[in-house]
Design brief:
Blueprint: E1 3-8, E2 12-17, H1 22-31, E3 39-42, H2 48-60, E4 64-67, E5 70-73, E6 82-83, H3 85-90, H4 98-105, E7 107-111, H5 124-132, E8 136-140, E9 143-147, E10 155-157, H6 163-174, E11 179-183, H7 189-201, E12 204-206, E13 212-216, E14 225-227, H8 232-245, E15 247-252, H9 260-268, E16 272-276, E17 279-284, E18 293-294, H10 306-314, E19 319-323, H11 333-339, E20 343-347, E21 350-354, E22 363-365, H12 369-381, E23 384-389, H13 392-395, H14 401-407, E24 411-415
Parallel strand pairs: 2-15, 3-14, 6-7, 10-11, 18-19, 22-23
Antiparallel strand pairs: 1-23, 1-24, 3-5, 4-5, 7-9, 8-9, 11-13, 12-13, 15-17, 16-17, 19-21, 20-21
Helix pairs in contact: 1-2, 1-7, 4-6, 5-6, 6-7, 8-10, 8-12, 10-12
This protein binds uridine-diphosphate-2(N-acetylglucosaminyl) butyric acid.
């Protein structure tokens, strides 16, 4: 397994371009299943999760030419509507084929994802919504088996604003007969992006980005050509990296309007964040200020930025209270940051992060995607050589991170086979 070696202590300077959004590209790749034709995606990030989704589509009977930033999904050969265990355990978002398959082919067999490092992550809302649309659902031998003749529009009231749950149900409703409402829908920008694509395909989706989404289903949907929006979490990660290491950088292609909660917290922490043309200029010189953060669904502070922001708070002047409300076990980076000299106490869902004067390099282990990013950022700050192991987590969601950080002047290299 690869590792990333960072020699910390350098300020960052330069410019870097943000890639296409992973969490927008994944549902949109699955949306190609809703039509028979050949769809084209552009601005797709080069990531392991994209490869896994391409492999899944292939298994289902849709050949894919996966050459990010371009991906073409071809017309079906023979459809085999089963998402097997080995692909779903690699990537939970595989469950996003469930809605499209049952809507388009009337049947689907998708391995239940099970828990992951950051929480138990059930999919009960996906299943409850599909049942309300008229699908019959059974759990057999660890698989969700769904079947339906033609789905019918319905009012779907979610118990919590789940992102992939909303997306799965939007895709299913797009081929249902009649009108559906998703109440308490997720408002994340990736949901809005999926709505854009479904509208291009011929469904009538309105209200995406609010808590109630209306979908007028179509009998057939057309293939599409779409360029994926920039990745707000990748953008936010580089903003925090510059703020943590100090210096000044121009980040190009930042979806500023999707990052308001993060930008407000960065400014409160005394980081300069200024829109500059199509990008954002980020700078930090003096001591960071401690600010409290509570994660919540969009437009709140994103859980996917909690680990990275925690590194900033490790370097701030007082004690920051950071509460995680979206996932129950998303503090896996805390003990690793502790090994680098951070002073963090966790009590339930809250971490009390006391600022220290600096971090010290260490060998640390990545546990999930965003935790990995936080350890790399900590490595940029720490004096000496940090080795972050198990960076396959990082490769799932950050395109060429070592190159992009290198372009900002950081000393970051990939060590092939460098970890256990
Ligand atoms: N939940 C349920 N039942 C459900 C669905 C969700 O109880 O049927 C709970 C979850 O257990 C969790 C909360 O609801 O506590 C929110 O989970 P959500 O379903 O919104 O998360 P997700 O759709 O599985 C997506 C992103 C995650 C991101 C979360 C929250 C994708 C592919 N994944 O996951 O991204 O953290 O929304 O914003 O879009 C990442 O990129 O690192 C990542 C983990």
């Amino acid at each position: 397994m690869d590792a990333i070696r960072i020699v910390g202590g350098r300020r960052l300077a330069g410019r870097v371009r943000v890639s296409g959004a992973k969490n927008a590209a994944l549902p949109i790749l699955c949306a190609t299943l809703l039509s028979e034709g050949e769809s084209h995606l552009r601005n797709v990030p080069r990531l392991q999760d994209i490869e896994t989704t391409a492999a899944l589509l292939h298994t289902l009977g849709r050949p894919v030419d996966c050459k990010p930033p371009e991906v073409t999904v071809f017309a079906p050969t023979t459809i085999h509507p089963e998402a097997p265990y080995d692909l779903v355990t690699k990537m939970r978002a595989s469950v996003l084929v469930l809605g499209p398959l049952v809507a388009r082919y009337g049947r689907a067999r998708v391995s239940l994802p099970g828990g992951c490092q950051i929480g138990t992550r059930p999919i009960d809302q996906h299943l409850k919504g599909l049942e309300a649309l008229g699908a019959t659902i059974a759990i057999e031998h660890g698989y969700v088996v769904a079947s339906a003749k033609r789905l019918r529009g319905a009012e779907l009231v979610l118990d919590m604003a789940t992102v992939t749950g909303t997306e799965n149900l939007m895709m299913a409703a797009a081929l249902a007969q009649g009108r559906s409402h998703i109440v308490n829908a997720a408002r994340e920008p990736e949901v809005v992006e999926l709505a854009r694509v479904l509208n291009k395909m011929g469904a009538k989706v309105s209200g995406a980005g609010t808590g109630v989404i209306q979908i007028e289903g179509a009998a057939e949907l057309a293939p599409f050509d779409h360029a994926i929006v920039s990745d707000r979490i990748e953008a936010g990660t580089y903003m925090v990296a510059v703020a943590a290491a100090g210096g000044e950088a121009l980040l190009e292609g930042v979806p500023v309007e999707d990052l308001e909660a993060l930008i407000a917290k960065l400014r409160a922490a005394r980081v300069v964040v200024e829109p500059d043309g199509t990008g954002v200029r980020v700078a930090r010189d003096g001591r960071l200020h401690s600010v409290d953060v509570t994660t919540s669904p969009h437009p709140g502070f994103p859980t996917d930025m909690q680990a990275q922001f925690m590194v900033l708070m490790c370097l701030a002047d007082k004690t920051a209270r950071m509460s995680e409300t979206v996932f129950e076990n998303r503090f896996m980076h805390v003990p690793e940051l502790g090994r680098m000299g951070a002073d963090i106490e966790v009590s339930g869902h809250t971490a009390f992060v006391k600022g220290v004067s600096g971090l010290s390099a260490a060998n640390v282990m990545a546990t999930d995607l965003r935790a990995s990013a936080s350890l790399v950022i900590a490595g940029l700050v720490a004096e000496g050589e940090t080795l972050v192991s198990r960076v396959y987590h990082l490769d799932r969601g950050y395109e060429a991170m070592e190159e992009k950080l290198g372009a900002l002047g950081a000393n970051v290299v990939r060590v092939r086979g460098g970890s256990v």
